[in-house]
Amino acid sequence: MDFFNYKENELYAEDMSVAKLAEEFGTPLYIYSKATLERHMKAFFDALSGHEHLICYAVKANSNLAILNLMAKMGSGFDVVSEGELRRVIAAGGDPKKVIFSGVGKTRSEIAFALEQDILCLNIESESEVDVISEVAGSLGKVAKVALRVNPNVDAKTHPSISTGLKNNKFGIAFDRAFEVYKKIASDKNLKVSGIDCHIGSQMTSGAPILEATDRILDLYNRLTDEGICIDHIDIGGGLGVTYSDETPPSPYEYISAVTAKLAHTNVAIYVEPGRAMVANAGILVTQVLYKKFTENKNFAIVDAGMNDLIRPALYNSWMNIIEVHKRRDDVKTYDVVGPVCESDDFLGHDRKLCIEEGELLAVRGAGAYGASMSSNYNSRPLIKEVLIAGDKAHVIRERQSIEQMWMNEKMI
Ligand code: LLP
């Protein structure tokens, strides 16, 4: 459930008319709902309430400072994958001691920065990284708390581009190697074993894959415990899917309680790293129809938002729901909704039944995750404005980038 609903055929974001917001702030425009974010966060907290836990919101899904600040105020920790994300968390008032750092390619300086901030845990993704973290920690006189991101070779049954827990993926340490690597870490004075981590994929619409992965992790946990290697947390990653079309993912409660039931007999805390499930349905992208074009085979609705603003359809062929801001049904036609960028793949949706005139507005739902955070300046299009709605108040949480800001760091020879 979210807080984008029609009132008398006009789309509202909480108590504010989307059309009025578009008029005031211009388009394309990202609009987020604070009440939806709070609802999602609460769902995760409720699901985890019977178990020691930490929610580490995956910053990459939406890294706007205002969103991070809200998450921090609600008690969330953070999953980061770069120094930039860690610095965002700190700038937004997040607690570095609730931050875990994942990613296959952490640089030495990123590792050093993370250790200086005393973050909670570094999730190690390769055997070479073990040595590098040990070296950097040693040189700083620190002991790095670490988990291995284990690749359990479990099929997340999602789009291949966002599947991460299979043998052929670059992520994590092969399950069969993990035990040996833990033994090595346990004997390293610069490292302290903290947890076991896995993240097998994104937009999972069933709980079965994560339960399979949890079984494998439990197996490893038991072997490590028998060996005297102490594990204080198990991190099941992110990956819970959302409804873009007719998917029926489990609720956070269903998804997590099945995992906690499996881990009930252990004494470890559970960490989760949700991104999409937290923010996707808390955001829409509003765009204006510039032109309609009718050709022999296709009708096009050419809109002012492009693949640079929202790349998911172009990159993964993702289906995202496109709705009219002013809903009516008197002249429904089938359109390809396409952007102004000079690429044939610049589309938001194919074959959509819409009733729309030039100058009217469309909204792409589910755009709160991996929308703004993946946007770019391609075709020299400035990053667009983002507003966060709280009841009947609109807060601009990112100004539209100016033309000069776009080329600020460029130099002519
Ligand atoms: N933890 C790690 C280590 C991750 O790599 C990810 C996502 C997450 C947590 C959060 O996963 P979530 O709960 O959001 O599924 N750009 C793609 C999604 C890429 C996900 C990358 N990793 C998309 O738009 O579908």
Walk me through this protein's architecture.
Pathway: Amino-acid biosynthesis; L-lysine biosynthesis via DAP pathway; L-lysine from DL-2,6-diaminopimelate: step 1/1. It is an enzyme of class 4 (lyase). Its cofactor is pyridoxal 5'-phosphate. This protein has 413 residues and is an alpha/beta fold. It is globular, with a radius of gyration of 22 Å. The model has no long low-confidence stretch (mean pLDDT 96). The chain has twelve helices and 21 strands. Helix 2 runs parallel beside helix 9. It binds ligand LLP.
Supply database-style keywords.
single chain, 413 residues, alpha/beta, Lyase, Ornithine Decarboxylase, Chain A, domain 1, TIM Barrel, 2 domains, 9-stranded mixed sheet, 8-stranded parallel beta barrel, 12 helices, 26% strand, globular, binds ligand LLP, diaminopimelate decarboxylase activity, EC 4.1.1.20, Ala_racemase/Decarboxylase_C, amino-acid biosynthesis, decarboxylase
